Amino acid sequence: MKKKLPMTLLVGSLVLTMLSGCGSNATQSSTPAAQPAGEKMELVTDGKLTFAMSGLLKPLNYKDSGGNLTGFDVEIGNEIAKRIGLEPNPVTNPWETILQGLKGKKYDAIIGSMTATEERAKQVDFTDPYYISGGQIFVAQTNDTMKTKDDLKDRTIGVVQASTYKEIAKKYTSKIKGYPSDVYALQDLVPGRVDAVITDKIVGVSAIKEQGLQIKSVGDVLEKENIAIAVNKDNPVLLKKINEAIKAMVEDGTYEKISVKWFGTNLLK
């Protein structure tokens, strides 16, 4: 992504500079399904889908107390691997070199909350999005007067200091309150110290799920970010099969179950 996702809720503001548990327990085959001629996937390790992430973005991808990779991205990757007949093999790589690692065939895919941008698409291919993020308006749960972005006019809006969301807020009001952290801004919604907060969608839904904040989102994301899986350009069969797996997961309800488990909501809606 442009890396605007939280490592933890207490350091939610870090997402503005970076962005952009448990895996499936189903028994998984270590042998790939037979591939028809012309339908061969190029894999780093036969029988495995090796997919990379930073491992630093809780609850998206992180290491638990036992040192095992877990999180939303991991569970999505595990389910995709199962559906295309492969053993899941999640690995970590520093974010700043994660694209180079993919192009260097260290792993087969990046399932690590990466925004599919035009610049990145020059280097790799992207699947259909497996979740949607971007700047989102949040208000107190009891606030029934703000229903669209137009209702931000002349309101007091909280944003993280020096974030790009400050520029968005300026389009609607001059009453802007800066905060050192997204979480502090969101916490000020309930007592009414600000009327609305603009922050990354994942930060807000995570605060609702993890902290139980009595807040809600308003409208659609202001600047939509499609978060997708990256694969090498010379691997069209893998790209196709991952897209088919994502589509099937959405259609049979598996995707929504995973999303609600980690965030309390469907991240594709």
Task: Please write out the topology.
Layout: H1 15-18, E1 48-53, E2 56-57, E3 61-63, E4 69-70, H2 72-83, E5 87-92, H3 98-103, E6 109-115, H4 118-121, E7 125-126, E8 131-140, E9 157-160, H5 165-169, E10 176-179, H6 182-187, E11 196-200, H7 201-211, E12 215-231, H8 236-251, H9 254-263
Parallel strand pairs: 1-5, 1-6, 9-10, 9-11
Antiparallel strand pairs: 2-3, 3-4, 6-12, 7-12, 8-11, 8-12
Give me the oligomer status: single chain
Helix and strand run: HEEEEHEHEHEEEHEHEHEHH
In CATH, what is the class of the largest domain? Alpha Beta
CATH architecture field of the largest domain: 3-Layer(aba) Sandwich
How many beta-strand segments? 12
Strand content: 25-35%
- Low-confidence region ranges: 3-37
Instruction: Give the helix level as a range of percent.
Output: 25-40%
Radius of gyration: 19 Å
Q: What is the CA-CA span between the terminal residues?
A: 18 Å
How does the major sheet shape up?
9 strands, mixed
Shape: elongated
Q: What fold name goes in the CATH topology slot of the largest domain?
A: D-Maltodextrin-Binding Protein, domain 2
Pairing-aware structural class of the strands and helices? Answer: alpha/beta
Mean pLDDT: 88
Structural domain tally:
2
Question: What is the helix tally?
Answer: 9
InterPro entries: Iontro_rcpt_C, SBP_3_CS, Solute-binding_3/MltF_N
Family: Belongs to the bacterial solute-binding protein 3 family.
Domain Ionotropic glutamate receptor C-terminal: 48-265
Pfam families: SBP_bac_3
